[in-house]
Amino acid sequence: MATEPTATDKSINVNGLRLHYRDWGGDSLVPAIAFHGFALNAHSFDEVAPRLSDLLHIHAFDQRGHGDSDWAKEVADYT
């Protein structure tokens, strides 16, 4: 039985904000981007992502102002 992948924490800079994400790797070439709901973070996918790694290469993001991602500079940026 293959071992389940573990996440690698990474970040990307988008429009001047550093966005954190967890790259779950896996053997699949099919990419999937996972965004959490209100008041959550990328760790929302810690249980399901390893189980889907044979079907999908999952990137679970912390949206801006959540988890380890930067906050937007202006409140109006959240509209």
List the helices and strands and how they pair.
Elements: E1 8-14, E2 17-23, E3 31-35, E4 57-61
Contiguous helical run count: 0
Average pLDDT, rounded to a whole number, is 91
- Radius of gyration using CA atoms only: 14 Å
Helix content: under 10%
User: What is the general shape?
Assistant: elongated
Order of neighbouring strands in the sheet with most strands: 1-2-4-3
The secondary structure category is mainly beta
Low-confidence stretches: none
| E-strand count | 4
Sheet of most strands: 4 strands, mixed
For the termini, the CA-CA separation is 46 Å
Strand content: 25-35%
**What does the oligomeric state look like here?**
single chain
Report the order of strands and helices: EEEE
Summarize the structure.
The protein is an all-beta fold and 79 residues long. It has strands spanning 8-14, 17-23, 31-35, 57-61.
What can you tell me about this protein's structure?
This protein has strands at residues 8-14, 17-23, 31-35, 57-61. With 79 residues, it is mainly β. Strands 1-2-4-3 form a four-stranded mixed sheet, with no helix packed on it. A hairpin with a 2-residue loop joins strand 1 and strand 2 (17-23). 19% of the residues are buried. The mean pLDDT is 91.
Features:
79 residues; mainly beta; four-stranded mixed beta sheet; elongated
